[in-house]
Amino acid sequence: MTHLTRAGLLVILFVVAFLFLRSASANVTIDFIGLTHSNDTSAWANLAVQNQDPETCGECHQPIGTSWGISDHASVTCENCHGATKEHIELARTDHDAPLAISDARDLCFYCHAELAARPPDFPQVDVAEHGAPEGGEAAPCASCHNPHQPGIPPAIPHEIEIPPKCLTCHAQGEWVPVSDAHIEPNNAECLTCHRPKEE
Amino acid sequence: MAISRRRFIVLGTNASFGGLLVYTMRGIVSPPSTPAADAQAGDANSDYRVEDHDWAYVIDTAKCIGCGRCARACKRENNISPHPEYNRTWIERYTFTDDGEVHVDSPEAGINGFYGEELPEEARGKKITKSFFVPKICNQCDVSPCVQVCPVGASFKTADGAVLVHKDRCIGCRYCIQACPYGSRYLDPDERVADKCTWCYHRITKGMLPACVEACPVGARIFGDLRDPESEVSKTLAERRVHVLKPELGTKPQIAYLNLDSAVQ
After folding, report:
1. CATH for the stretch B31-265
2. Min CA distance, A62 vs chain B (Å)?
3. Does B114 lie at the interface with A, CB-CB under 8 angstroms?
């Protein structure tokens, strides 16, 4: 029997050794000497976020956040036009006038609204050469007529107009049918550049 | 010093097994850690579990207006060189003319939009029969040629679906750039390593959308988790007819397209 026990022990020993070696080689790759990848995503996950979502901007910027949020431009995020806000937010913690540059160039609007054959036809588009550019004159910034936070066609005026216009006598903010807060600095002389008398 | 052969073999075997035992126990006693990751764990979301997500991305070419805001947002978010040669996402314009020709252009990769950009010379003056924009991005292929060819294992596929490049491992050999059938990779001009779209991995792991998806004003880019059956991306893939780019290559792209024209490659 001794020789059988010995042979049996040897077989068991070999099996154990085999399993040991197998588990060792299966669990440990040459990764530990740094030659293969480790699937370590932390380097990417650790990067700092540069662009916020509009809700973050809305935490400070009300009511512009609310009026923009129900406008046709609600799908255009703040940073699309104003740029990344990471630095601005960090500055704004201490400085309430933290600067955030924005260009009034027509480019910002024409990126989306210039007429192009490849653009879906139901998307609002204008002829860059004609729109807002009087013949021989310099093109006006889009924002001088359109409010980018509340785009759309300025309402027609439903009554006769005094010439020269004294619109703000009746329509000052807080008065009867006040001008909306979409106007940056309303003044009598400029109302008719955007608003048109209602045609009979 | 007298040691019998028998004694030598017994000692040697014991020492080998002992060593093996200690070696295999190593991982149990002290789990391997990555010092680099621990040191700068500052901005990562520690609640994020990579195996709980399966990200997917859908692009609707019929909605794209070619404004380039996605490409600009990507550059801002990922601090990519402003040079139009280096892009993680770009926009192509397809123009079909009545002589049966298809003209594809992507001036400055569409970063500055397409307004003021003339059509390709051969398309000018001809009647345009059909025209549209196609946003392009890394397809995060399930069977990724770029991962397969990387000689140092710097490119890898994450459990949640993204293909990433381990910048510390990359040796800048450009094999992956050659291997990608979609032209999605480029050599980072500053670090001299391969770079590509990460689906804004630092944003999606914090519950945010990739910068291009967030920036798209017309909803042409949809991103979400397939593990959530109620997500827009799950519903879109379940209910709409989608197509992928170059399916014949068998790369299993994870970017699906809605309203894709057969001319798009």
Report:
1. 3.30.70.20
2. 21
3. yes
